[in-house]
């Protein structure tokens, strides 16, 4: 199995992160088999495009919430890594802590 699980949507509340916020998080290595995807389907065109990261972040976005790592953005990068026999990838990991009331 490539990923820990294949999810369908984000199980965590909206976090409000924007691209500028993600850019402040330094990338770190994440094991593919620890990731839960938030998308069940992938656009094959995105996976095979040579310039797929041209307009976006070079690193996938992962949300750490309630003990799990959710792959929010960058599924095509993670699959590319798996196709190249890699077990880890560099990603920006946001540790989501919901506001206390």
From TrEMBL:
InterPro entries per record: VapB-like_prob (IPR014447)
Protein name: Type II toxin-antitoxin system VapB family antitoxin
């Amino acid at each position: 199995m490539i990923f820990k699980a294949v999810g369908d949507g984000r199980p965590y509340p909206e976090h409000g992160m924007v691209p500028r916020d993600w850019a402040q998080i330094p990338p770190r290595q994440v094991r593919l088999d620890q990731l839960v995807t938030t998308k069940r389907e992938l656009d094959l065109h995105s996976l095979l495009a040579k310039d797929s990261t041209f307009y976006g972040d070079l690193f996938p976005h992962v949300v750490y919430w309630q003990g799990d790592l959710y792959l929010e953005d960058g599924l095509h990068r993670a699959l590319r890594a798996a196709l190249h026999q890699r077990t880890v990838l560099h990603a920006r990991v946001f540790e989501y802590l919901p506001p206390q009331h």
